[in-house]
Structure formats: structure tokens, C-alpha cells
Amino acid sequence: SISRFRFVEVIGKGSFGKVWKVIDKMTNELCALKIMDKAQIIANKCLKTVILEKTVLETLAVDRSDLISNIKAAFQDREKVYILM
Fold first, then answer.
1. How far apart are the C-alpha atoms of 77 and 4, rounded to whole Å?
2. Model confidence over 29-69: pLDDT tens digits?
3. Strand partners of residue 75
4. What is the C-alpha separation between 79 and 12, in angstroms, rounded?
């Protein structure tokens, strides 16, 4: 749930949303949380691109490279898609 995180600052912006530096309230871990607007994704006909991004991040997470942001979770609500790295 989004309430699990304390938002620190925006660290990136894109066509569909923002990437936030967040702190996981349960583990006190510093993470990046990409938040994308579903309406923008659909309007730009980029649903396949978002699904591909999630799939690629999951595939790369198997290797756990320090050079790549590893996906920790992905979830959604009615209006947004979230990717936690």
C-alpha cells in the first residue's frame, strides 16, 4: 500500500508520472518509487511499454546488479501504477 512509504523528494519526472525517493516505514529502507498515471498511459497507448518495463526489471532483478535499480514490488490502485525499486 502507498501508505507504507514516507515521501522524501521527487528524483525524476517522465511522461506518465514521477519517481520519488521514499522511505519504507516498516523496514526504514530508502527506495525509489515510480508512480505512473493510468489515464496518461492509456491516452498515449503505452500499456505494453509499461508492462514490458516491469517484465524487464523483474528479469534483471534475478542478477541483483548494483548498477541497475532492482525491482522490489509493483502494485496499482484505481488511478496509478507503482514500481518500487
1. 14
2. 999 999 999 998 888 888 888 888 888 877 777 666 666 67
3. 82
4. 20
What cell was used for 79? Answer: 488511478
Res 81 pLDDT > 80: yes
The 3 state secondary structure assigned to 6-27 is: EEEEEEEECCCEEEEEEEECCC
- Give the β-pairing of 80-84 and 30-37: antiparallel
- Provide the grid cell at 36: 505512473
Residue where the block lists cell 490502485:
77
Higher per-residue confidence, 64 vs 5? 5
